[in-house]
Structure formats: C-alpha cells, structure tokens
What does this fold into?
Amino acid sequence: MTHSEDTNRADEVDLRAYRKGDLAALDRLIERYRPMLYAYALTLTGTPTDADDLFQDTWVRVIRSPHRFRGGRFRNWLLRIAHNAGIDRIRRRKPTSSLDQTSENGVAWVDSLPDPAPDAASQVASEDAHQLLWRAIAELPEAQREVFVLRIEAELSFKEIAELLDVPLNTALGRMHYAVRRLQRLLRKEPDDDA
Amino acid sequence: MTHNAFSVHPPERATPPLQTPCKPAAGLSEAALAQQARAAFAAVRGPSAQVREQLRAEARRALRQNARKRRNAGVLWALGAAALLMLLLKPSTSTPPSIPATPHPIPPHRTLADLLRLLSPEPDTDSLVASQPITAEPTPDQLAEWLLDFLGFAEPTSINGSTEPESAPQARATPAHNTPGWADRRHG
It folds into this structure.
C-alpha cells in the first residue's frame, strides 16, 4: 500500500468521524489497513490465531482511545500500537517457527492463503512459493522479521522504522540488510553464516 | 520475477558464486525478493470474519460508553453546582468557634446581596438587589430558581424582577493621583 498525503488526510477525517459516532468511518479505516496490519501481525506472531488476536488487540486500543492520536501519520501510530501489543504477546509466548503448525482452532497455516483460482495449477505453484517465502520469513530472527515486514509491506522509511522500534537508524538498516541476505540464502537452501 | 526464483533446487553452476557480504546472491535480487514478499503478504487472508464482527461490536460499545460518560459528566456537574450553591446559601446553625475579639466576617443572617458582594471582585455599592435577610431555609422553588439562574438557564431578569439592565454603578471617588490634572500638577 502506497502511503500518500491523501491517505493520511482520509485517515484523519475517518478517525474524527468515528469519534463523533460514525461506525462506517471506522470500518473504512480497518479495511484500509487490514492487509498491512494483518501481515505485520502474522509476521510478528507466526500463527493465524495469534495474528487474529494481535489484530484485534490493536484495533480495540484504537477504538477505545482514538483521542490519543496526536496527529502525524495514522499508519505509524497504528503500527506502534501493534508493535507494543505484539511485544507483550511475544514475550509471553515465543513465536513458532513452523508455519505448518495448526492453530488452536485446528486451522492450518495454509488455510489462511486464498482459495484456489480457476487456474488451479498456477495457483498451487503460487501458493507453494508463498509458503516457501513465509517459511523463510518465519526463520528470521524476530527483530529482522519485524523490520522486513515494516519495510516491505508497510512501506515505512528506515527513519520511521527506527522511530517506531526506538532503535538507531543504523540498527534498522542493518537488520534489513541481514534479513534480506538471510532470506536469499534460505530460499536457495544455502548454509546460513549470518546467524 | 518468476516462480523459479523460489525453486528449492537452484540452477547448477559450473563454479559456485562468491559469497561477498554485501552483494545479493545471484538469481534473487533484493527487488525480486521484495516483490515476492509483497505478493506473499497480499495473498494472506485477513483476519477472520468473527474478528471483524467483534471489532464492530466493540466500537458500538465504546461509542455508547462515551455518550453515557458525557451525559454523566453533565449531570454530575449540575449536581455539584447545586450542592455547592446550597452549601453557600445555607445559614449557619452552629455557633462559630469562640473568638470573641474578632467579629465574624459573614454575619449568620446573610443576604443574597451580601453573598453577591462577596463573590464579586469589587463590592457593588449600588446593587439593586433587595437586601432582605434570609431568615429561613430556602424553599425548593427558590433553590430551583437559583440553580437555573446559576447554570444560565433562567430569564435574564434581575432579582427584583426588572428586565431593564442594571444602571451602571456611579463612579466612585477617583484617587487623587488619577485625576486629570494630577500629573500636570506634579510635573508643572
């Protein structure tokens, strides 16, 4: 999702409308950030069930305290809430590295991928590729994984990532660099020497 | 970028590539990796419908709660104001502590005019408020009227019933140093 000033303005308008009681405005906000926030939650937690919980926790905090948004970019504020909510969750329970694991509800990871398209063969191949990549992402260290998804999916600048994670800019850059290198190696099944 | 980039078996090479620290591995550039990762992220289903429904319910609950809080705050404010007013207007029944040397600044039978004079920054010597002593407990009608007046809901009438604006207080004796000729006298 490309984040523009128009999006930012739309966010502020919708948040203000929600504070005045417009539920449709909240729906728009949730829908606008659903893919990005869910991918972030899934990357952080490792399982769809935990990702659902983190997604819900994040939005509940927004719903209950919309007045805490003090301007700036709503997207960054949302991600910071998700980050803070995720930290506790991760500390309580380390994420699983296996994406084959079924969740508590018996939902396998592959079930969270889209339904097969008419072109079933290419869809299966695509799903295989996605699963392979997700498996590789899950093998990244937690800090690298987070920077990777913030950069690739949320499209935050490294400066924004550094501010969000409260780390120096060079640390954010370094984590991304090692994440990319490691993913490249994992996807090629090469021995990892960055660990 | 094609699916081949994610092939478990990379194409065989005559010589293995050099593993330099900062150079991406051949066949999988950073841009290609990012593109594939975006596709993988986008392919993920969102949260379950149950989660979305719970969020809507939570939002409805939060909005109702906020509306209730606002209403309660208004009621509490009015009750607090009424209680404060009653405390201020209630005549003192207990005997003040015995300090016979200094007279009590507020006499036990206060008048409304006295009260207004105390609350106003400067005593209004020309107040039109009738100086009738409050000798008994205010009736509920009086209390309600005062409360409405206090909250700003009453008709803008003065206490003696006149709707005419109060006449401006007469100018008090101006201090000598503020009289127009004072500076001239001082410098001249």
